[in-house]
Amino acid sequence: MSGVLLYGAPAPGLVDVPPGAVQVSPLIPGSQDLAGFDVNIDEGVVLAPAGTLERDFVLAHTLRLLKPGGSLLAFGPKDKGGSRLKKALEGFGCVVGETARRHHRFCQVVRPEALRGVDEAIVAGAPRIVPQLGVWSQPGVFSWDRIDPGSARLMAILPPLAGRGADLGCGVGLLAQQVLASAEVSQLTCVDIDRRATECARRNLDDPRVEVVWADARGLALSALDFVVMNPPFHDGGAEDRDLGVSFIRAAAGMLRKGGTCWLVANRHLPYEAPLAAAFAKAEVRADAGGYKIIEARK
């Protein structure tokens, strides 16, 4: 195994990533699980998440794995947590060298002999049952400790479904739980690009009709489905990307049989009408309230 771990996908030219670095971001399908490593490494390169619990979990695990004297380069956009990295690393007992360029903060540390607070950060960022939801989740997963308002609105109006279907961007499986309440559903493929979400979904969806897949839903080979449900993403790296939602609409249409139905929720301002009209025979808004629209589209 390489002596270097890489967390995240830095923009080209932002940092020098050593050849052979092992990717450990849960948002890159096929990557390794950072929490599952138990061998020492020489170097860590971490594009730090913005969320505090998620960030500290990643930093703590990377520091845990570093050999004494091993190096860690942690960095992030200044306005998305980068300005807080130095303080976070100092809290673990590290002496931090900090630089700034291209709107990012870069923190270089050498692992000290003694670390502090690492075990606590790992526990705080680990998977757990969220009491208010009654399901397994983990900091860093989309809407990890609450029902996303858009998904809640879709769940409130979604009729009982039947046959074979898919939940694209399933998260920890809250929408899928409702879909599976219909005995007429024979099979449900739940897909998410976040490994943490799929691991939690497997725990939450103890049902022989379910297959949970860690993958980018846009490239998944499914066909002749009776239905698709989804709350398609429209942010990439924190920036709004309307093409992302459009690509989910096209992917869903490609998975459905003729006459199959897609139920989706979208923020009201997103202009999905044209791509829906191009991909489906019919698309109707079934509800429009609270800044969200619920759409039923038929292939």
Q: Descriptors for this entry?
A:
25% helix; 2 domains; Rossmann fold; 17 strands; 299 residues; 6-stranded mixed β-sheet; alpha/beta; elongated; single chain
Describe the structure in your own words.
There is one protein chain. The chain is of the alpha/beta class and 299 residues long. It folds into two domains: 121 residues, 3-Layer(aba) Sandwich (Rossmann fold), CATH 3.40.50.150; 171 residues, Rossmann fold. The protein contains eight helices and 17 strands. A seven-stranded mixed beta sheet has the order 11-10-9-12-15-17-16, sandwiched between helices. Strands 2-1-3-4-6-5 form a six-stranded mixed beta sheet. Helix 1 links the parallel strand 3 and strand 4. Helix 1 crosses helix 3. The longest helix is centred in the first third of the chain and has 14 residues. The protein is elongated and about 60 Å long. The N and C termini lie far apart (47 Å). The mean pLDDT is 94.
Write the layout of secondary structure elements.
Elements: E1 4-7, E2 22-23, E3 41-47, H1 52-65, E4 66-77, H2 85-91, E5 96-101, E6 104-110, H3 118-124, E7 128-130, E8 135-137, H4 149-157, E9 163-168, H5 174-180, E10 185-192, H6 195-204, E11 210-214, E12 225-230, E13 235-236, E14 239-240, H7 242-255, E15 256-267, H8 273-279, E16 282-289, E17 292-298
Parallel strand pairs: 1-2, 1-3, 3-4, 9-10, 9-12, 10-11, 12-15
Antiparallel strand pairs: 4-6, 5-6, 7-8, 13-14, 15-17, 16-17
Helix pairs in contact: 1-3
